[in-house]
Input
Amino acid sequence: MTHPLLDLPPLTAERFAAIERRVGSLLATAHDVVIAQGEALLPLEGCVRGGARPGSAALNVVTGPYGQTFGNWLRDCGADVVDLEVPFDTAVTAEQVERALAARPEIDFVSLVHAEAATGNTNPVAEIGEAVRAHGALFMLDAVASVAAEPLLPDVWGVDLCVIGAQKAMGGPAGVSAVSVSPRAWERLAANPRAPRRSYLSLLDWKERWIDTGRRALPHAPAQLEMLALEACLERIEAAGLDTVIARHTTAAAATRAGALALGGGLAPYVHNAAEAAPVATTLRTPAGVDASELVAKALAAGPGLPLIAGGGALAAGMVRVNHYGADATPEAVRDSLTALGTALASALGGSALGGSGAPVDVAGAVRAADSVWEARG
Ligand SMILES: *Cc1c(COP(=O)(O)O)cnc(C)c1O
Output
């Protein structure tokens, strides 16, 4: 008996190359695209280990947990790392990056996360890219949480290595990912004697065995199901229009923020400045005395399947994340999330919604505020 997920004909080199081209159009890039056969941490690690050399200096911008991971990899590679860390409830500014670069002229690699799903902030990559280009360093961007949620223009912004994954705003699979590689980045990797070779982390192996040989034969068996899912999700984005998908995410974020502000009860946006809030996910601070993990558990008991999660690690006690991305970038998911959170919050504060003994929690007002954002943006 055949099964829809099994017994598939092999994924051809032509089809693989066609999926690569579609990723290139999604990123509006003229550079080579490598589709990594693993989750986005695979190309991210490949980029860091390919770009950093012992004795080189790297600027690692830390605006959330992924930046900390990159810093550790860079140090592993023997690079002298300058960590530019800003509070996770803000974005880094181009001026901060400029100053850090000016203080260390020898910096030749810069790593940055575009949007942080974990903390809910987004960084001004276009302006930062100008500073990095003026300095002449290689620029790596983690755009996993920004692709399809907000504009992403790696070539225009001077990004040399732009890594994406399909599992967030693209609404696709988690098991494959992609990186666009500028000609400058290929030169840097090729000139780095410590860049991974004969390794699953090696972008250079992939270039030599796939790109430079005319994309005629795949070096090894591709992650077939994930590639088909990636193709399907690219088709779906193309059919809807990338701008429409992005608009759904920016509106979901604005609606969630407006709803949370109207909700009251001490639940407040974690990222103070709305302009620095990521369209992919909205993070909220819980009021003193309300544990975020318990609040989320209570909300999920009432609304199973809602895109709610407590912050990771040290943020688990005080942060709630509304992951309104992919299939959840909708008015319904936002409304239901606000309702479940508001109801759980009212009970945690020891009152009922509006008029209880605790701080007033206005669930109906929150839903109205969120809906009016969707209506205003058509
Ligand atoms: C989601 C995400 C990734 C992918 O990592 P996972 O931990 O596997 O989800 C990488 N970078 C950023 C900024 C992300 O938001």
